[in-house]
Amino acid sequence: MTWTSIIVLAAGAYLFKLAGLEGLGRLPVATRWVRVIELLPAALLAGLIVTQTVGPHDVVVDARLAGVIAGALLTATRRAPFIAVVVVSALVTAVVRAVS
């Protein structure tokens, strides 16, 4: 992929996001959908992490899986903020990689 195509795609993605914020930001949203919309980024990121960790290839038990499990446990037991889950997952992954 050339730099021109990367810049064009990045500009397009930014314009789509800007259009969504400007256009859809003015529309009223039902209160029950607000919570769903707020949770979508975390759900999409969690799905991406799980897919990349134990996705369509052979399941490999390594440091990445330990980090995902630590993040899931922290979320389930402590209801920690998203940034804390990411930091703890990264630290657990780093420690497991350093030890092994």
Summarize the entry for a quick read.
This protein is mainly alpha-helical and about 100 residues long. Helix content is about 80%, strand content about 0%.
Attribute tags:
single chain, 100 residues, mainly alpha, 80% helix
Description:
The chain has 100 residues and is mostly helical. Helices cover 80% and strands 0% of the residues. It has helices at 3-24, 31-54, 63-78, 82-99.
What's the layout of helices and strands?
Layout: H1 3-24, H2 31-54, H3 63-78, H4 82-99
Helix pairs in contact: 3-4
General form: extended
Instruction: Give the low-pLDDT segments.
Output: none
By DSSP (H or I, 4+ residues per run), the number of helices equals 4
Main β-sheet, in a few words?
none
Measured distance between first and last alpha carbons: 36 Å
